[in-house]
Amino acid sequence: TLLGGVALACLAGRAEAADARLRLSIPTRSYADALIDLGLQANISILGTANCGGDGRVSLSGRYTVPEALDRLLDGAPCRFTVVDARTVRILPAAPAAPATPPSREVPRAPALVAEIVVTATKRPAALDQLPAGVSAISRAQISTTRATDVGQTTGQLAGVLTTNLGPGRDKLLIRGLSDGAFTGRTRSTVSTYLDDAPINYNAPDPDLRLVDIDRVEVVRGPQGALYGSGSLAGIYRIVTSKPDLEDYRAGATAGVAWTKGGDRSHELEGYVSVPVVKDRLGVRIAAYEDLQGGYIDDVNLRLRNVDQTRRDGGRLAVRVRLDEHWRLDALAATQHLRSNDTQYVTQIISAGAGPGGGLSIGVEEGLPVSAPGERRNRVQEAHNNDFSYGGVTLEGDYDWGSIVSSTSYVHHVFSSQFDAFAAINPDDPQAPLNGVGGPQDLGVFTEATRSNILVQDLVVRSSGVGRFDWLFGIYAARTVEQNPSVLGVLSTGRKVMVAYTESRKDRQREYAVYGEGSYDFGGGWSATLGGRLFETRVHTTAQLDVIQPYGPRFFDQARTFSGFSPKISVQRQFSNGDLIYALVTEGYRPGGFNSSGFYAIRVSRTTFAPDRLRNYEAGLKLRRLDDRLTVRAAAYYDDWTNIQTDRYRASGLGYTANVGDARILGLEGEAAYDWPFGLSLQLNGLLSNSRVHNGNPDFDAPVTRDLPGVPNVSGGLLAVYERLLAGDLTLRLTGEASYVGRATLSFDTTKERRMGHYLRTEATAEIASGGWRATAYVTNLFDDEGDTFAYGNPFSFGQVRQFTPQRPRTIGVRLAAAF
C-alpha cells in the first residue's frame, strides 16, 4: 500500500526556493567565492563553482531572487548557471549557447563529489567546508546515483559511520566507533536521528526509513550536546526531505527488481509529485513507496526456505505556504510500515573439517548435525514489525536582523519482536530459569513490544550572520512516553499455552533546556565560538511483573531527575584561499534510568544505572586545491567517556542496563574527493580508531574487554563515478562503491567475546540516461563475501552458540526511473 499522511512541518533555514526574494550581502570576492557566499546565504547548494576559475572581483548587496543574483554575479564571467531544482544550482563552463534557464524536468545527474553543499545541521545555514566540525553531506544526486535507498546504504560514503546488521528496523547507528554495544535496550541511542528538524528516535532502533525524494543527508560527527541535547553523544544523522516547489510541477517514479543468490526475488516501487497549488504561495509534494526484500536464509527445523523476507511501504505529504515576504510555514507528515518474517542470522560452529566445498559448517551446538551456510534450526520464526508515524509544523520568519524558527513535532513509533526462547525452558539445562516447566518438544516464545510517543518543541532565534558577532539562542522541551509489554509463553505439545513471565513497563521522560552559542570574528580569518546547554531531564518508570512459581509478582516504581550543563568551545581560522583549520571541545550526555525486568528482583545496586558523559577534543582541517577540484577534510580527536551505559542480557535472555566503566578513544578520520574534467569523480573516506576501557565498574558482573565493542581499528570506503556522453542525448554513467569494516568485538563481556567484522561491502552500477529517463543495472556483494557483520541474533541462545550474521549474498538488479 502506498501511503501518505497529512500534517505540518518545515525546514529550519533561510528562504530556500529559487523564486524567493532574499536579502543578500556578498563582499567583493572572486566569482567562485561569491557563489559560495550566495549558496550559504540563500541556503541552496551550488555545484561546480570551479568552472568559474579563481579570477574576477564581484560583490552584491540588496534583495534578489536566486536567478537575479546569479545573473548579476556572473555577468561577464567565464561560466554560466542552470537551476536544477529549487535547492540546487549547477555552474557550467561558458558556452556560445543562450544562457540556461530553469529546466522543466528534474533530471538526476552524476554527483559532483567536490560540491559546495549548504547544510543546516548546526541549526543555521553554513557551507560544508566552512564549519569547524566533522561534518559530511550526501546530495540528492549522489543518493540517486549510488542507489542509497536506506540509512545502511549511505554508511560506506561517510567517514566513521557504521550500522549494526540484525535486520531492517532492528539496527542502531554508530559514529566514530563510539559504541555501547550492539544491543538495543533501555539506554538512549548514541546517535540522534533527525527527519528534517525533528528527533525520531529515543532508545529505539533506527526506523530504517526509505530515502525517497530526499534532498540530502547530513552527518555531524562527535558529541553535539550543546545544540541537540541527550542522545547526540556520538553525533547527528539528519535526513532532509525535498520541499514543495511553488513555481513548477515536478514528478518522478522508479521501479526495480532484483535477484539474490540462493534467495527470493526482491522488488521496489517509488514515486513523487510536487504541485504548485497557488503559484508562489502554496505547494504540495507527495512521495510514496513500497519494496520487498526477498529472504535468503533457510530454517531446517521449520522446513521453510528464505524465511527472512521484509516488506516496507510508506509515504510523505509536505505542504509549503508562503504567508508574506517574511514568514513561511512548511508542513510534513510521514508514515512507514515494515514487516520482517524472521531475523537474518545463522548459528555456527567451525569444525576441523570445513563444510561442503570448503565452506563453513553450521549447527545449533556441538554434536548436532551440521548444515550448509545460510541455514539455521529454530523452533519458531523470529518476526519483527515496525510502524513509524510522524507529523510536525515549523513556522519561520526571516528579517534583516535575523530569523525566528519554531518547530513542533510528534513521533509515534511502535515496534515488536518475537524470539525462540527454548533456552529459557530447556529441560536438559539445569541453569535454564524455567527448567522443568516445559518438555523437550515444547516451544518457548518471547515477545517484546514498544510503543513510543515523542512530542518536541524547539524555538530558535538567530542573528543574520552579517557582521563580526553572530549568535543563536534556543528553548527546547520534549516529552517521551514508552510502553513496553513483554511476554514469555510456553506452548506444549498438547497445543496449550502457559504464560510464564509478563512485564508491563512504562517510562516517562521530560526534558527541558535552554541553549545558545555566540561567534566572534577577530579579523585576519580568526574567529571563536562559545556556547552551551543548560538542561534538566526527569525519568519516571513503573512496571508490573507477573512470574510463574517459584518466582512471584512484583511492582516497580521509581523516579529521578538529572540536570547539568553541556559546553562547546571552538577556535578556527579561514584562509584567503578558502582553507580552514579549527580546534573544538564539545560534550555529549545521556540521562540515567532504571532496571525492572527479570524472573527475580534485581539487586538494589543494579536497579539504577547512572548518566554517562563524553567529552571530545578535536582538531581538524579542510582544504581545497587544484582549482577547487580537490577537497580534503580531516580531523584528529580524543574522547573521554565516563560511566558508559551498555545494554546486556542475563543468562535467562532478559535484558538490563549497566554502567561498565570509562574509556579513552583516540581517532583519525578523513575524507577526500577529486573531480576530473573528463567525467570521473572519486571519493575516499576512512577512520582509524583506538579505544581503551578502564576504571571498570566493580558491580559489572563479568570481566571487561579492553576495547569498546563494535569499534574496528580500521574502516573506510571508496566511491567512483564516471559519466560520458554517448550518441544523441544518451549518457553513460558507471559507479563503483566499496567499504571495509575491520574486526571488532560484540559486547563488553570477555566471557562472550567474539571477533566480528573484517568484511568488504561492494556494489557496481551501470546506467544509461536520456532526458528524464534512466535505466540501471547493478550488482551488490560482487565477491559474495560472507564476513560476519556487527550483529547478534537471539538473546536467549546468545553466549551458548555462535551466532553468525553474514552479508546478503550477491544480488543482481535492474531499475527504470523517470523524472518530469
How would you sum up this structure, described in words?
- This protein has five helices and 46 strands.
- By secondary structure, the protein is mainly beta.
- A hairpin with a 5-residue loop joins strand 25 and strand 26 (469-491).
- The chain is globular.
- The two termini are 23 Å apart.
- Mean pLDDT is 86; it is low at 1-18, 97-107 and 349-372.
Taken from the alpha-carbon principal axes, the silhouette is globular
> What is the averaged pLDDT score?
86
Spans of at least 5 consecutive residues whose pLDDT stays below 50 are 1-18, 97-107, 349-372
Share of β-strand residues:
over 45%
Helix proportion? under 10%
User: Structural class given helices, strands, pairing?
Assistant: mainly beta
What gyration radius follows from the Cα positions, in whole Å?
27 Å
Number of helical stretches of at least 4 residues = 5
State the end-to-end distance. 23 Å
Strands, count: 46
Short structural summary:
The protein is mainly β and 820 residues long. 4% of the residues lie in helices and 52% in strands.
Present the secondary structure layout.
Layout: E1 22-29, H1 31-42, E2 45-47, E3 58-64, H2 66-73, E4 79-85, E5 88-93, E6 118-119, E7 126-127, E8 134-139, H3 140-145, E9 161-163, E10 173-175, E11 191-195, E12 198-199, E13 214-221, H4 225-228, E14 235-241, E15 250-260, E16 265-278, E17 282-293, E18 298-299, E19 310-322, E20 327-340, E21 346-348, E22 375-376, E23 384-398, E24 402-420, H5 422-425, E25 443-463, E26 469-491, E27 497-523, E28 526-547, E29 554-574, E30 580-590, E31 593-594, E32 608-609, E33 612-625, E34 630-642, E35 645-649, E36 655-659, E37 662-675, E38 680-694, E39 714-725, E40 730-741, E41 744-745, E42 755-756, E43 759-770, E44 773-780, E45 802-804, E46 811-819
Parallel strand pairs: 2-5, 11-14, 18-22
Antiparallel strand pairs: 1-3, 4-5, 6-7, 8-13, 9-10, 11-12, 13-14, 15-16, 15-46, 16-17, 17-19, 19-20, 20-23, 21-45, 23-24, 24-25, 25-26, 26-27, 27-28, 28-29, 29-30, 30-33, 31-32, 33-34, 34-37, 35-36, 37-38, 38-39, 39-40, 40-43, 41-42, 43-44, 44-46
Helix pairs in contact: 1-2
